[in-house]
Amino acid sequence: MKPRHARLALIALALAALAGATALVLNAFQSNLVFFFSPSDVHQGKAPADRVFRIGGLVQEGSVQRQPDGLTTRFVVTDTARVIPAVYTGILPDLFAEGKGVVADGRLGSDGLFRAERVLAKHDENYMPPEAAHALEKAKEAGKTLKPSY
Amino acid sequence: MIPEIGTFALIVALLLALIQGVLPLAGAQRGRVAWMAVARPAAWGQFSFTLIAYGCLVQAFLSNDFTVINVASNSYSELPAFYRVTATWGSHEGSLLFWSLILAGWTVAVAAFSRALPLEMVSRVLGVLGLISVGFLSLLLLTSSPFLRQFPGPAEGSDLNPLLQDWGMIIHPPMLYMGYVGFAVAFAFAVAALLSGRLDAAWARWSRPWTTVAWAFLTFGIALGSWWAYRELGWGGWWFWDPVENASFMPWLAGTALMHSLAVAEKRGAFKAWTVLLALLTFSLSLLGTFLVRSGVLSSVHAFAVDPERGAYILGFMVVVVGGSLALFAWRAPRMIAGGSFTWFSRESLLLANNVVLMASVAAVLLGTLYPLFIDALGLGKLSVGPPYFNAVFVPLITPALFLMGVGALARWKGDSLPDMAVRLRWALGVAVATGLLLPLTLDGYEPWAVLGLGAATWIALTVLIAFRERVKSLRQLASLPRAFWGMHLAHLGMAVGVAGITLVVNYEKELDVRMNVGDQVQMAGYTLTFMGVEQYQGPNFSGTRGSVVVKEDGDQQFVLRPEKRIYDASGSVMTEAAVRPSAFSDLYVSLGEPLNNELTTWAVRLYHKPFINWLWLGALLMVAGGLLAAFDRRYRLATRERAAAAATAAQGA
């Protein structure tokens, strides 16, 4: 075919490929966005019921309970204003501890229990994941706390 | 006293960098030889003083000088001396000083190995490098000095982050920096070319080996980081699409595209403007990576400083560098002459496709990495983009590149014939497709992605074989092939090996989280693992709990794996040391989860069987070796000697 036609065909092919790639990217993008909600947000019903989202805050003191099967752990996530009970099956990261920051991805069940699919590890004990810190700050600003702040 | 000498040395280095940045560029602009000649000595001076400053920091660490805040935050008196030295780059401030040192090092390398370049070009390149040094040294001195003191100094330091107390982790940052910073050289050459308004094949020839070496280092650094994460994090993962990992991967992708684009620019004089733009983009992505890691905007296991002030400074620096270079490009590039033409099926067109695919991947990864930051900055909420996005997007984008890799390496320049190529490659295609379809039948389950991955890997390997077969008639001729030829094919082969490894490990790995009592047995992948309990012991700066797991293979062969949990004295941090039994064809991986009773006799244990995972690192090593071979091809030396001779006679004649 003529060089001009060949070039046009090539350009058309390239554009089609580009359109395809863009559609692929945007589709994958949409279905993999994980939004963050603090326990207060979840309590107010802002978290979606049918998709994975991220929750963050502190692990409430005294709330960690290991279940009899050995690998499931129940704990409570708090931002000092509201609490959300959670459960995770698997080995928890080394620095997961009561009173320390935690960030977890998972789904909220209709029973109000957060089923975590991933619990994020921190890299040192003084590090507070920005999202968890953000949740705590928002709660403090709103002025509602369960405990007196010290 | 010594830390103050360090600060003073940095100030002198900054002044020298300023001279190195301003005078030669002005001199090149105005044709003043005296000013241009300042470039090399200024570069050496800047390097010497940066080295002195770095030496002061090392000395502070080695002597446990806890009055230096950086030492107190990152070291410990019981920390082994080796780690005390490497702790110099374990913090934001220290690693910035290290960055500056490496930048100065590359600068003097350019100064030393550029005898054959015209002075005007050398002065511009060194000038640009000097300006970049000014940016980093002033960032150091103004916001992130590692030499800040506290009086009285604490009695003891807070210890180096235990995650960094591993030799793999220690080499990873230097290798990464050699890569990132090395791309600054390509950037400097590009800016120099734009400033001079001349973009000839010589520019591409000069940039190419520097870019290839930088690329090789970056490949090694990324592979090391991945290998370290696999062994140290206890989760068996080796790539998480973590924003900081992406921050190093994007310059790598762009750098790969740049390397390939430079080939066309050098050989055929085509793609010149695009190659220049790519050089600017690659270094910009390096700077972006620096920003992401250090600004505190990221929630990640890697995140360094949580300091908006430093983040703002780096961001400002980035805007100046990226914006300035792009503006320069927009202004000057249109003046550049187009190069040789080529048909729609030729090595040039295939390399163009390579670039398109790689840059599309960069765009996709960039979107996923930066989108959360934009949304957060706009106050629209906090979100993250999960790893499935990156996998769903990257794999389909890179697959065409894998296929084209085989064809491109064999295609002729300027114009090739598709029917001819089809004949050359038909049996390779057949064997590759057959291997892809049939090999998974012998594996543990038929996975469609394995068909694709194994097919692609076989395809690339076969095309490499064909390339050699077409080029030499006898084995003796192998030695006379140019290094660049060996390098290219070795690197592509490395890619094939890596793809095979990734395909097999991702589709066929096995993971078990089990509760184990002393004496309990578990079966996995043909192994029988028996948990024998734990024992406590004392390390230099930690107390450790070491477990024993006796592993029996079919056939009575027996060995012991010893996973550990360590609690570091200074920080109280807990670290998992997984026990890995490597082999060419699989890894057996055991890590201790958590104790499930107070007597420490029952533990949650994680077991992995990872087939062919070592092919990943092997593939990366082959790519590094290929890159280094290609960069040291004799033709660069020959051109150097010829040009040096020409420059010498010209100087004598003038």
Structural features:
heterodimer; A: 150 residues; alpha+beta; OB fold (Dihydrolipoamide Acetyltransferase, E2P); 2 domains; 3 helices; elongated; B: 654 residues; 6-stranded antiparallel sheet; 4-stranded antiparallel sheet; 19 helices; 63% helix; globular
- Number of structurally distinct domains of chain A: 2
Helicity level of chain B, as a percent range?
Answer: 55-70%
Number of strands of chain B: 11
Order of helices and strands of chain A: HEHEEEEEEH
Oligomer: heterodimer
* Cross-sheet strand order for the largest sheet of chain A: 2-4-5-7-6
**Which band does the percent of strand residues of chain B land in?**
5-15%
Radius of gyration of chain A using CA atoms only: 22 Å
Biggest beta sheet attributes of chain B: 6 strands, antiparallel
Major β-sheet of chain A, in short? 5 strands, mixed, barrel
Low-confidence stretches of chain A: 123-127, 145-150
As a percent range, the share of helical residues of chain A equals: 25-40%
Q: Quick check: average pLDDT of chain A?
A: 79
For the record, the CATH class of the largest domain in chain A is Mainly Beta
Architecture overview:
The complex is a heterodimer of chains A (150) and B (654). With 150 residues, chain A is α+β, with helices and mostly antiparallel strands. Chain A has 2 domains: 1-32; 36-142, Beta Barrel (OB fold (Dihydrolipoamide Acetyltransferase, E2P)). Helices cover 31% and strands 28% of the residues of chain A. Chain A has 3 helices and 7 strands; from the N terminus they run αβαββββββα. Chain A has helices at residues 3-31, 39-43, 130-142, and strands at 33-37, 53-59, 65-66, 72-78, 83-89, 101-108, 114-119. A 5-stranded mixed barrel of chain A has the order 2-4-5-7-6. In chain A, β1 (33-37), α2 (39-43) and β2 form a beta-alpha-beta unit. Chain A is elongated, with a radius of gyration of 22 Å. Chain A starts with a helix and ends in an 8-residue tail after the last helix. The model of chain B has no long low-confidence stretch (mean pLDDT 88). In chain B, strands 3, 4, 5, 6, 7 and 8 form a 6-stranded antiparallel beta sheet that branches. A 4-stranded antiparallel beta sheet of chain B has the order 2-11-10-9, covered by helices on one side. Chain B has helices spanning 2-30, 33-36, 39-62, 69-74, 81-86, 92-112, 119-143, 167-196, 201-232, 243-268, 272-294, 308-332, 347-377, 387-408, 418-438, 448-471, 483-508, 614-631, 634-653, and strands at 383-385, 510-517, 521-524, 527-538, 542-553, 558-561, 564-568, 574-577, 579-582, 586-595, 602-611. With 654 residues, chain B is an alpha+beta fold. The longest helix of chain B has 32 residues, at 201-232. Chain B has 3 domains: 2-333 and 345-358 and 377-395, no CATH class; 417-508 and 617-654, no CATH class; 510-612. At the A-B interface, α1, β1 and α3 of A face α13, β1, α14, β2 and β8 of B.
